[in-house]
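Take a careful look at the sequence and tokenised backbone pasted below. I need to know what the token row says about the fold.
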Amino acid sequence: MSTSVSVRPSWQVFCLTPQLQSFYNAVASMKAVKDSTNPNSWAYWVETHRANCPHGVSYFLAWHRGFIHRFEAKLREISGDASLVLPYWNYYDSPAIPPEFLDPASPLYRGDRTGTDVSGALSYDAFADTVLRFQRGKTHAFETIIESRPHNLVHNLIGGAMSSIRISPRDPVFWVHHANIDRLWVAWLKAGGGRKEPLTTNTYWSGNLYYGPAVAGMPRVWTADTTTYLGYHYDDETMPTQSSSAALAASAMSGSATPLRPATRVSVPFGKSRALSLDEQSLNVDVALSATDAARVRSLMLQPAAAGSAGDGPVRVVLDGVHLTGLGHKGGYFYNVYLNLPAQPGTGKAAGAYLLGSVGAFEISVAQMKASMKGMHDMSGMAGAAASQGHGARLVFPATDVLQRIWPDNLDKLSVSFVRVDGSRHPAKGVVMKVDAFRVEADPSM
């Protein structure tokens, strides 16, 4: 157990302390070492994340808590500053990337970022009173929601290395972003109100976390809290509140104001597929339902939430063969995906009621990595990985919960809206994403 407790401050506080120079020195020193097998190199931590990080599966939060803790210890060792800690970037208070990361003379600078403001990522969904359970697989689970938003969305809006799971730790802003995600976990648990994670005696915490061959792993139970074994806490451990200014900036995600549905551009029959291209414009797809289709969807809406196919739900929006263009790989954007978003505001429901999820370069890179790993496992070789990536990513958005929440009176069609959100005032124009086969499908009614 830890005998002393350090305090991780916000970046705004940290950058005014002598430890800022220690941080600069450590980062510069690690970047100068090119051997990716050496934990004193920046590349070691990038490769460890690529090879081991769990995204879209259990222990996303626990693994990253241990990861940034081990990285913090390495910063302290290399800098020779025993008081150096890893600060967090509180983008709920200051959504613009801190200026120290934008100075070309700074070791924190990267020239590939395509966005500098993450206001559009500021979801408050993970902090709702209904989000009481922690682990993935439970309904209204904190880990699942916070990984999707704001975590993924911050990666998307910054772009560059941050938009790819394979190389995102190359960007120094990765570390202060993940420190903030870790802080938000602490804040969620401390808020009480029925919020809880499994007890430390629960088998959920059994096993160990791995951080590559040259850095010590740690028991999962060490990550159940930050003070007992890891020896740190944050200077602010309160959940963010939705101020009026932040609400306006994040309205497309948080649902404080219902955005207009994009003008209808394309249509497709229910259960049939069509190709899509996504660019700087938002897009709406009308999915026509026959009377038989409508009756089937209505029947599935009446079933308990647990009914239907495992994981994806009985009604779902499917994107098969999703590819990024060269422009799309640069990131700096994402699309909120809505079902039956009203054409006009003032319906009485917030936009979040219609939200299926989000898709950007980061989500696609995660899907491709998971497909590669599955392909390598299934085919026992790199051919499987190449084949998986060659066919593009597959993304599935369960739709039954949204249908039950909004309960449309008329089911002659379903409208799926891709609402574009950018991290720059001057986003690049052009096609960023191509979808080989978009469709809305459903299980046979029971």
Notes: Residues 209 and 218 are 5 Å apart (CA to CA).
